[in-house]
Recover the amino acids of this structure.
């Protein structure tokens, strides 16, 4: 009996973890920009990042502290920290702060 | 043996004169014309010593009786020269090879002289303004090849919206970052293109989702969409009204991709086309000629340049 349910449970757990990993921190989702009052830079949804000014979406992967975006052959890999109203991207010495736009 | 040597010399001299196509006149005033005889042993008769008597003979000729005088100087029955006289009183002596020598008298001392004919094709280097590089080898050094040639590729129709000033600034950034090539993927967007894209998004995603993304200027364009959509107008009319609104607001206020190319150049570069991306970003961010620069690090999927013209 235990053996019978063991494999499906493992599979379901793996899929669940995969989804969590792909989404990263749930706070990532939302509309972000460099400065309120300007156009937003991008909107992060469950599986893609939509760049507002370019009218383009790109798939991304996120862990709890990193985001990977494939920008048509250019792989952007940044560390991030996110709060309710701020998102910080960093790579080496560069840090960019985005502010959350009102949903 | 001596006879063969003389014959050999004859052919050498004949070839020399024929090759040059004119009578040989040296600095020593030697004048030689081909004759039937070989009085000087070299195949030519040396007229130099007889120049005085030749000119005397020509001076005494009655030119009114004939414009041409034929001379058989050595009286061998074969004409040596056909002579004409020009308006200056100089004699033009033509031999059987149609080689011409002009003779006359020096006005200073009345001595016979050979007058060099003007070169029909003067040496270009003797003319004023001759190229010193061609004539003297005094050439400026060839331009140094650009140490790192820059290769910039363009998406179709994008080049016309990028000025030389912008290209030079871009090359400076490339130099700074030691980037040899890149690809420009888009340039300035027209208000119509902006209106069309915003229309499509409003139509497919709903206006509520779009209001979240734009500034107050963009929101007014969305308002225009909603207004005419609710009145039941079709796509073309609504897009036209949105375009008018964008123009009214100032297209660069609605999108950083819009603007007048004569005032501002806007273009995007594919990050995947740039090798040394970190240096490229640093150099672009520190270039004071660039009004705004965005990269994937600060929210743009491309390297976005805005350069005031």
């Amino acid at each position: 009996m235990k053996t019978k349910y063991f494999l499906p449970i493992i599979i379901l757990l793996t899929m669940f973890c995969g989804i969590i990993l792909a989404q990263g921190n749930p706070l990532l989702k939302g509309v972000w920009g460099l400065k309120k009052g300007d156009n937003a830079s991008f909107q992060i949804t469950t599986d893609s990042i939509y760049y507002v000014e370019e009218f383009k979406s790109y798939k991304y992967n996120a862990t709890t502290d990193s985001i990977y975006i494939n920008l048509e052959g250019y792989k952007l890999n940044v560390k991030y920290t996110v709060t309710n109203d701020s998102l910080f991207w960093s790579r080496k010495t560069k840090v960019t702060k985005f502010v959350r736009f009102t949903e | 043996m001596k006879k063969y040597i003389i014959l050999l010399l004859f052919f050498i001299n004949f070839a020399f004169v024929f090759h040059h196509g004119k009578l040989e006149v040296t600095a020593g005033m030697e004048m030689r014309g081909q004759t039937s005889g070989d009085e000087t042993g070299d195949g030519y008769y040396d007229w130099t010593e007889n120049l005085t008597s030749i000119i005397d003979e020509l001076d005494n000729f009655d030119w009114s009786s004939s414009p041409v005088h034929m001379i058989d100087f050595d009286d061998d029955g074969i004409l040596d020269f056909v002579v004409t006289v020009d308006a200056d009183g100089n004699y033009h002596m033509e031999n059987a090879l149609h080689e011409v020598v002009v003779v006359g008298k020096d006005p200073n001392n009345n001595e016979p002289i050979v007058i060099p004919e003007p070169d029909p094709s003067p040496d270009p280097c003797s003319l004023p303004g001759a190229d010193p590089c061609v004539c003297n080898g005094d050439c400026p050094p060839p331009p140094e090849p650009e140490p790192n040639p820059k290769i910039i590729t363009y998406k179709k129709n994008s080049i016309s919206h990028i000025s030389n000033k912008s290209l030079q600034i871009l090359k400076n950034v490339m130099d700074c970052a030691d980037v040899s090539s890149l690809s420009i993927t888009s340039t300035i967007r027209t208000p119509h293109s902006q209106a069309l894209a915003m229309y499509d998004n409003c139509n497919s995603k709903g206006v509520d989702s779009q209001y979240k993304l734009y500034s107050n200027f963009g929101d007014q364009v969305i308002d225009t969409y909603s207004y005419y959509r609710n009145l039941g107008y079709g796509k073309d009319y609504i897009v036209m009204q949105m375009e008018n609104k964008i123009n009214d607001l100032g297209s660069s206020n609605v999108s950083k991709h819009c603007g007048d190319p004569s005032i501002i150049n806007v273009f995007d570069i594919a990050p995947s086309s740039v090798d040394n991306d970190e240096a490229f970003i640093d150099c672009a961010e520190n270039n004071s000629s660039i009004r705004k620069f965005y990269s994937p690090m600060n929210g743009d999927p491309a390297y976005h340049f805005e350069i005031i013209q």
